[in-house]
Design goal:
This protein is mostly beta strands. It contains no helices and eleven strands.
C-alpha cells in the first residue's frame, strides 16, 4: 500500500508562486510514475503534470511554461513548482501514482492511477 501526502498549498495573488510537495511512503519504489491532478469547484478532476521513472515529464497545455514537475527519487518525493499563477489555477490539487505494474510508465488515463493523496487547496486571488 502506498500513501501519498501533499503539502505546500495556500493562498496567493495572481502572478505569484507556490511549490507543492508530495511524499510517498509505504510500499514505494522510486521506479514509479507520480502525478499531480487538480479539481476546481464544479469541474471534473484534470491531469496537471506527470513524471515517470526516467524523469520524462508531461504537462497540461494550460500550465505549460508556468508549472514544472520534478522529483527526488531517493526520497520518493515529487514537487510541482507553480509560477505566474492565474485565477483559474484555483483548485484542490492531488498527488497520485499508479500501481507498480506500470513499471515506471505514466498511464494516459486518470482511472489507472490507484493511489491518491487527500488533496491540498490552492487559491489564487486578484
Amino acid at each position: 500500500q502506498v500513501k501519498l501526502m501533499e503539502s505546500g498549498g495556500g493562498s496567493v495573488e495572481t502572478g505569484g508562486s507556490l511549490r507543492l510537495t508530495c511524499v510517498a511512503s509505504g510500499s514505494t519504489d522510486s521506479r514509479f510514475c507520480m502525478a499531480w491532478f487538480r479539481q476546481a469547484p464544479g469541474k471534473e478532476r484534470e491531469e496537471v503534470a506527470t513524471i515517470n521513472a526516467n524523469l520524462r515529464t508531461r504537462h497540461a497545455e494550460s500550465v505549460k511554461g508556468r508549472f514544472a514537475i520534478s522529483r527526488d527519487g531517493a526520497d520518493n518525493t515529487v514537487y510541482l513548482q507553480m509560477n505566474n499563477l492565474k485565477l483559474e489555477d484555483t483548485a484542490m490539487y492531488y498527488c497520485a501514482a499508479p500501481t507498480s505494474e506500470w513499471a515506471g510508465r505514466c498511464p494516459q488515463f486518470q482511472s489507472n492511477f490507484n493511489y491518491w493523496g487527500q488533496g491540498i487547496q490552492v487559491t489564487v486571488s486578484s
